[in-house]
């Protein structure tokens, strides 16, 4: 028992339990006014507290759905529905996942290329780097609807516009991380390469790139999460057709709180899984390269 | 590179002199009939010629260096490049969508000349520190200016419809005309109310919870992994829920901003407060310092770089959160509201004006945080040069 609590598992477990408890308490508190209203309309007086609590946790359109309602909704829309059905959360998650991954891949490639350019050219370093940083102060998510509408107008629709937003959000951490990583070899090592008369390409592939791999994976973890956010926001203006963002939007139009929360939870699980996958890939690659610590 | 760029620019200028400048329904316009453009093309040729002479001299073993390779040459190149961009763009004004081969060749010549200037500026070592710093600021600024020039030239040159992408000049006009209304009320609603209040409350509460978490080790071990996870989640998604709970006005947007900024602040502050090493904390113990004394005199100063990191991340997150939350319902004012309605009305230049305001506000906010960081963490190695 003490061993369990001296590590991380125990405390995390307790914190998660606490969050769920707070969630239930908040659900009761927030849903109670509506429930009292219903009782008053039905002319039911003296409702026992236990009755009130169970009713607040099982409303159709609660202000805050209870965890078990969300879990039930997720179960209903994933396992009980066929994957191709438009009511299936798996289908919507798949739509979001495809544009997330496309944007993430393009963003990572773009980020790496930019970083290589910045590390090797003084002019690019001086002129481009400040703009890479300030590009993120532009609230791109705010332009997301316009990009999608405009690209639709010139006949580009489907995955690419959404992936573009994901790309914009995900290239930045990769560029910054890779610039740092490609510059991380010690001067001693760079000098050694010089004494070997290594060309720039050789220095890059044999020294700089291996050094940058851990940085690449760290920034890819950030990038994949950012690109999921981009994909979700990119789905908002398309008129709630498909995807987790569309589920959020249609849920908010029709007051389906349970649907909003289930989409949110699905998105969170997806983010966690994606980040974990990058982490696993990190472990495998570093082990193969003999860099695992 | 510094030898190749003028050659390429000169070659492009030759094409510019031969090919027609504009080709429209009213017939073609030759480069020779536009005085300003002609002067620019000839100036580029002279520059390329001087460079050619230098290369030839080097080939013969004579030093190819001339006064043109010095700072005064830089100035001349800068003047040629920007004069060229200016005459080309002003000539283009009356011939929207009619740009022909000569125009593009000369535009490439101007662009290469501009690149040459930046290249030379980046490689030059200035004796005075102030001038060196000025050059460091000028290079990215020039890059931005040339992006705008290219944008303007491409959009007007190809006659891209305004609905798709307006030219910077049109956005500028809209920005000036839209200045008191509707841009200022939108800015006040979104930035001064939702963003600033949400940012203050979110960062403040994240900081306070971090102080508490550091005090209780159990909480630190339990809350930190959860906080790290939540930082990676798509929190913007809570926007519709917040709009349902707190109504359409700025309160709901501030709530989204609070949630978005809380976790980065919490995680960073906790990491920062743990940054002081054991020796330092032991030293404080030998001084019989209390928890609060250690906190204020040792751990908080050590945590400042991390806290400022969170403040900088949050400054962009806050703006994004507030604008996106407005897509889910607002009163008829606000930057997100304006963007989504003007997109529907195909007033794309208004949207871009709004984006320009947002980008400027975001950059200034970020810049302010960077400035504060420099003032408060002047001792940090990354600022000591």
TrEMBL record, chain A:
Protein's UniProt keywords contain Lipid biosynthesis: no
A biological-process GO annotation: transmembrane transport
UniProt GO cellular component terms: plasma membrane
Subcellular localization(s) per the UniProt record: Cell membrane
Record InterPro entries: MetI-like, MetI-like_sf
Bilayer topology annotation: Multi-pass membrane protein
Claim: Protein biosynthesis is one of the keywords in the record: no
Keywords: Cell membrane, Membrane, Transmembrane, Transmembrane helix, Transport
Transmembrane segments: 12-32, 89-118, 138-160, 212-233, 260-286
Xref: Pfam families: BPD_transp_1
Segments forming domain ABC transmembrane type-1: 89-282
Gene3D superfamilies according to UniProt: MetI-like (1.10.3720.10)
Record-stated family: Belongs to the binding-protein-dependent transport system permease family.
PANTHER family registered for this protein in UniProt: ABC TRANSPORTER PERMEASE PROTEIN HI_0355-RELATED (PTHR30151:SF20), ALKANE SULFONATE ABC TRANSPORTER-RELATED, MEMBRANE SUBUNIT (PTHR30151)
Protein name: NitT/TauT family transport system permease protein
Highest classification ranks of the organism: Bacteria, Pseudomonadati, Pseudomonadota, Alphaproteobacteria, Hyphomicrobiales
From TrEMBL, chain B:
Pfam family, one: BPD_transp_1
Keyword Transmembrane carried by entry: yes
Entry keywords, A to Z: Cell membrane, Membrane, Transmembrane, Transmembrane helix, Transport
GO biological process: transmembrane transport
Membrane topology annotation: Multi-pass membrane protein
Domain (ABC transmembrane type-1) ranges: 188-373
Membrane-traversing stretches: 39-56, 101-122, 134-154, 191-214, 226-248, 254-275, 306-330, 350-372
Gene3D superfamilies cross-referenced by the UniProt entry: MetI-like (1.10.3720.10)
Family: Belongs to the binding-protein-dependent transport system permease family.
Protein name according to UniProt: NitT/TauT family transport system permease protein
Organism: Breoghania corrubedonensis
Organism lineage string: Bacteria, Pseudomonadati, Pseudomonadota, Alphaproteobacteria, Hyphomicrobiales
């Amino acid at each position: 028992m003490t061993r369990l609590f001296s590590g991380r598992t125990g405390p995390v477990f307790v914190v998660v339990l606490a969050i769920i408890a707070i969630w239930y308490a908040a659900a009761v508190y927030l849903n109670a006014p509506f429930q009292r209203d219903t009782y008053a309309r039905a002319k039911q007086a003296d409702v026992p507290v236990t009755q009130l609590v169970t009713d607040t946790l099982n409303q159709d359109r609660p202000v805050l759905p209870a965890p078990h309602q969300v879990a039930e909704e997720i179960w209903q829309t994933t396992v009980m529905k066929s994957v191709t059905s438009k009511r299936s959360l798996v289908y919507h998650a798949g739509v979001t996942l495809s544009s997330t991954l496309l944007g993430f891949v393009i963003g990572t490639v773009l980020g790496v290329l930019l970083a290589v350019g910045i590390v090797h050219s003084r002019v690019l370093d001086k002129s481009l780097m400040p703009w890479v940083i300030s590009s993120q102060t532009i609230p791109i998510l705010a332009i997301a609807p316009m990009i999608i509408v405009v690209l639709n107008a010139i006949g580009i629709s489907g995955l690419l516009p959404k992936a573009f937003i994901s790309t914009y959000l995900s290239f930045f951490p990769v560029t910054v991380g890779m610039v740092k990583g490609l510059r991380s070899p010690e001067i001693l090592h760079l000098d050694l390469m010089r004494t070997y008369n290594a060309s720039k390409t050789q220095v890059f592939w044999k020294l700089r790139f291996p050094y940058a791999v851990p940085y690449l994976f760290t920034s890819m973890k950030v990038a994949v999460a950012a690109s999921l956010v981009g994909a979700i926001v990119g789905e908002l203006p398309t008129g709630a057709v498909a995807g987790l963002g569309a589920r959020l939007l249609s849920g908010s139009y029709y007051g389906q709180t349970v649907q909003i929360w289930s989409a949110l939870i699905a998105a969170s699980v997806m983010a966690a899984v994606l980040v974990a996958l990058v982490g696993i890939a990190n472990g495998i690659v570093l082990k193969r390269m003999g860099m695992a610590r | 590179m510094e030898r190749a760029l003028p050659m390429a620019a000169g070659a492009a200028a030759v094409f510019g002199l031969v090919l027609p400048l504009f080709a429209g329904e009213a017939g073609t316009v030759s480069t020779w009939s536009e005085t300003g453009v002609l002067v620019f093309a000839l100036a580029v040729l002279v520059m390329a010629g001087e460079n050619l002479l230098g290369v030839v001299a080097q080939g013969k073993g004579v030093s190819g260096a001339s006064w043109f390779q010095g700072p005064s040459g830089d100035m001349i190149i800068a003047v040629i490049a920007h004069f060229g961009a200016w005459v080309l763009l002003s000539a283009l004004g009356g011939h929207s969508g009619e740009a022909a081969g000569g125009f593009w060749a000369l535009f490439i010549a101007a662009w290469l000349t501009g690149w040459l200037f930046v290249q030379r500026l980046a490689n030059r070592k200035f004796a005075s520190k102030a001038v060196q710093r000025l050059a460091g600021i000028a290079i990215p600024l020039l890059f931005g200016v040339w992006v705008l020039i290219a944008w303007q030239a491409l959009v007007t040159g190809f006659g891209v419809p305004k609905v798709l992408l307006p030219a910077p000049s049109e956005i500028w006009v809209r920005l000036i005309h839209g200045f008191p209304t509707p841009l200022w009320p939108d800015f006040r609603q979104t930035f001064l109310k939702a963003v600033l209040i949400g940012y203050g409350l979110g960062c403040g509460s994240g900081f306070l919870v971090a102080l508490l978490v550091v005090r209780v080790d159990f909480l630190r071990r339990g809350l930190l992994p959860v906080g790290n996870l939540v930082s990676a989640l798509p929190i913007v998604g809570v926007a519709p829920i917040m709009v349902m709970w707190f109504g359409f006005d700025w309160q709901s947007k501030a709530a989204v901003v609070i949630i978005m900024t809380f976790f980065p602040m919490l995680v960073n502050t906790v990491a920062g407060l743990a940054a002081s090493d054991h020796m330092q904390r032991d030293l404080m113990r030998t001084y019989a310092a209390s928890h609060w004394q250690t906190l204020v005199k040792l751990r908080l100063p050590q945590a400042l770089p991390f806290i400022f990191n969170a403040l900088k991340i949050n400054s962009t997150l806050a703006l994004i959160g507030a604008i996106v939350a407005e897509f889910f319902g607002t009163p008829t004012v606000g930057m997100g509201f304006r963007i989504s309605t003007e997109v529907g009305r195909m007033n794309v230049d208004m949207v871009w004006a709004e984006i320009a305001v947002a980008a400027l506000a975001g950059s200034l906010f970020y810049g302010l945080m960077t400035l504060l960081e420099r003032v408060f963490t002047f001792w940090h190695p990354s600022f000591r040069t």
